[in-house]
Amino acid sequence: MLQNKLLFNQSSVSFEIIGLPDYSNDENKEQISIISQWKLMIIDKPLIEGNFEHLSSIMEAFYNYSNFLINNEIAFYQSNLIDIRLDNFLTHNILLKSAKKDVKPLNIIIGNSVLSDIINCFDQFNSSNKVRNVNLKLLKNNQKKSLLKLFNKSKISSILFPPLISIFSLFIFSSIYFYLYDADGYKEKNVFLNSLKISHSINSINTIL
């Protein structure tokens, strides 16, 4: 039986869902209710894939981890399948663990933009009217926040405001300095010209005498 495929893209990330509709409920043949496989493809990173049970755990991990970041909590998530921790403000360390003993854990390091793209793909998947799955919809309802909210106005202001204040202060200081410098230079120029005039007058008087 031919399976359906849905692809959700966001910049550096592609998220593919493979599965079948529930024919017992007379669902549309293009829908997916029974997920058999999924693939998370990140540019220049190894392929991440698994079955439905893995998908629930992976999505839960990323959503919870992003919520930790949003709430300024300790950014670390650990489970039997995946660990995610913050390396620094720019990178995130992901450790994928297999249930098979002969498969070594897969370690991936991603940046903020990739993490945001992954969450965006998951949001697209959860919002798709072509996916009908109660368990994942419940997951969506429990994880309403997205990593995109990490860059809300208040956080942008807290990040950008201090540098802008510094730049503005530097501009004001420089303007005042150049103004005073020009004023002093102007005064010195007038003093110099006046001294020349006085000297010229004295010379003229001496000539006359």
Structure characterization notes:
With 209 residues, this protein is α+β, with helices and mostly antiparallel strands. The protein contains four helices and eight strands; from the N terminus they run E-E-E-E-H-E-E-E-E-H-H-H. The chain has two domains: 4-150, no CATH class; 152-209. It has helices at 52-70, 112-127, 134-142, 153-208, and strands at residues 4-10, 13-20, 34-42, 48-50, 76-78, 82-86, 91-96, 106-111. The strands form two sheets. A four-stranded antiparallel sheet has the order 1-2-3-4. The chain has a four-stranded antiparallel sheet with strand order 5-6-7-8. A hairpin with a 2-residue loop joins strand 1 and strand 2.
Give a summary of the structure in a few sentences.
The protein contains 4 helices and 8 strands; from the N terminus they run E-E-E-E-H-E-E-E-E-H-H-H.
Helix and strand layout, with pairings?
Elements: E1 4-10, E2 13-20, E3 34-42, E4 48-50, H1 52-70, E5 76-78, E6 82-86, E7 91-96, E8 106-111, H2 112-127, H3 134-142, H4 153-208
Antiparallel strand pairs: 1-2, 2-3, 3-4, 5-6, 6-7, 7-8
Helix pairs in contact: 1-2
Please state the structural category: alpha+beta
Outline:
globular
- Give me the number of helical elements: 4
Sheet of most strands: 4 strands, antiparallel
Low-confidence stretches: 150-161, 200-209
Mean pLDDT: 75
Cα Rg = 33 Å
In percent terms, what proportion of residues is strand? 15-25%
When the domains are counted, the total is 2
